[in-house]
Automatic annotation (TrEMBL):
One Pfam family recorded for the sequence: AHSA1
Listed name of the protein: SRPBCC family protein
Residue ranges of coiled coil: none
Domain Activator of Hsp90 ATPase homologue 1/2-like C-terminal: 23-125
Gene3D superfamilies on file: 3.30.530.20
The family this protein is said to belong to: Belongs to the AHA1 family.
InterPro entries, alphabetized: ASHA1/2-like_C, START-like_dom_sf
Length: 263
């Protein structure tokens, strides 16, 4: 495997993945472009009519490059997908794939999804039935680590930690003991971080949001729609930038915990 996450001058993210396939480029090209093969490894139904592309979910797209049997590039809504294939020295194929998108924090979801797809593509080329998709939570967390997605920021006195999780918001809320949150009372312990003074809860929306006073500042937890099957976690702590390491570590601990849960 060879994965990298780059940033374009205009701030978009580019996921680069490379695979070596033990089959000649002409065979790989057919698997990349012929509908009966695409249906066995691509994440959704896809049909190409001229330069127009239709997918089984989400917006449509356009073919922006088509150079058989070397290059296929198309858009999927605002995203761009690009496959480049070339022969390697063993008679097989080197596949270079890039996915360009705006949501950097969704990169691990994209990477784990494409990893699974390319595994299915490899089995298809080998003449085997692709495996049924399984739980990719551990794979997602692996990509969070290797793509460097576990950081946060401290700007203008406010800490912000954003993290894609692998389980839906109701499951995460229960893991946080969110159903015990009461306005005016201290927040449940899973909402607090080491060294952060926790005052009373000032706002609670079950499964979505919790705010509480923290010394001279305010902590806000949000669970919103994420990329893939899990919720997007955003923690902000106003007026105490020194708490960034604590909240970053806490978000990682939570991500590890929920990845081990079943839905």
């Amino acid at each position: 495997m060879n994965e990298r996450l780059l940033t374009t001058p205009d701030g978009r993210s580019v996921l680069h993945m490379q695979r070596r396939l033990a089959h000649p480029p002409a065979k790989v090209w057919r698997a990349l472009t012929e509908p009966e093969h695409l249906a066995q490894w691509f994440p959704t139904e896809v049909s190409i009519d001229g330069d127009q592309v239709r997918f089984g979910f989400g917006p449509g797209g356009t073919v922006i490059a088509h150079d058989p049997p070397r290059l296929l590039a198309l858009t999927w809504g605002d995203d761009e997908l690009r496959w480049e294939i070339s022969p390697d020295t063993t008679g097989g194929t080197l596949l270079d794939f890039t996915h360009t998108f705006a949501d950097r924090h969704g990169a691990a979801s994209f990477a784990s999804g494409w990893h699974t797809c390319f595994g299915a593509l490899s089995r298809l080329l080998d003449g085997l039935r692709p495996h049924a998709p399984g739980d990719t939570a551990a794979l997602h967390e692996h990509y969070v680590a290797i793509l460097g997605l576990s950081g946060g920021t401290a700007r203008g006195g406010t800490v912000r930690v954003e993290r894609q999780l692998t389980r839906p918001a109701p499951v995460v809320w229960l893991a946080l003991d969110g159903d015990r949150a009461t306005v005016g009372a201290p927040p449940p312990a899973p909402f607090t971080a080491a060294g952060v003074e926790a005052g009373p809860v000032t706002r609670a929306e079950p499964g979505k949001l919790l705010e509480f006073d923290a010394g001279a500042g305010t902590v806000r937890w949000e669970l919103t729609e994420g990329t893939g099957h899990g919720a997007r976690l955003v923690i902000t702590h106003r007026d105490d930038p020194a708490t960034l390491p604590a909240w970053r570590a806490h978000a990682e601990d939570l991500a590890t915990t929920v990845a081990g849960l079943t839905t």
